[in-house]
Design a protein that fits this description.
There is one protein chain. The chain is an alpha/beta fold. It has 4 helices and 6 strands. Helix 1 links the parallel strand 1 and strand 2. The radius of gyration is 15 Å and the shape is globular. The two termini are 28 Å apart.
Length: 130
């Protein structure tokens, strides 16, 4: 099971100081419409909490084209079952993106942009902690 903290800094959610102490969660929503919580992720990491960043649209109106396909989490493979999917997220085998579409771009245009982005990521390497 994975535990995610969604939009930590909205509606008196969590403070940056809370992120130093919180434990027993695996994912943190870092990108979503009109908000960026990367400083929350950075604080958690700096205090020894190895959590994975996720991005989402958090949309509530699927008929509004501007709410869909803007922020996403891309896995570095295409897992076929939930256990493997969760494992990829748990181990940070993913990337988060904000796509900055033109207003009212079609679903097809958004899908094409997402596909291009997925194909751009070939390899990510780490040296020590960087």
């Amino acid at each position: 099971m994975l535990v995610a903290i969604a939009h930590p800094g909205i509606r008196n959610g969590y403070s940056l100081n809370d992120m130093k102490l919180l434990q027993n969660y695996h994912l943190l929503e870092g990108l979503r419409p009109r908000f960026n919580f990367l400083n929350y992720w950075d604080t958690a990491l700096a205090y020894g909490h190895p959590i994975t960043l996720i991005g989402s649209d958090d949309f509530h109106n699927i008929s509004d084209i501007n709410e869909i396909g803007n922020h996403l989490t891309i896995l570095f493979s295409n897992p076929t079952d939930l256990k493997l999917f969760n494992s990829k997220l748990l181990h940070g085998q993913s990337a988060v993106a904000s796509l900055n579409h033109l207003p009212y771009s079609s679903i097809a245009e958004r899908k094409k942009k997402i596909s291009r982005l997925q194909n751009m990521i070939d390899q990510i390497d780490f040296s020590r902690d960087t």
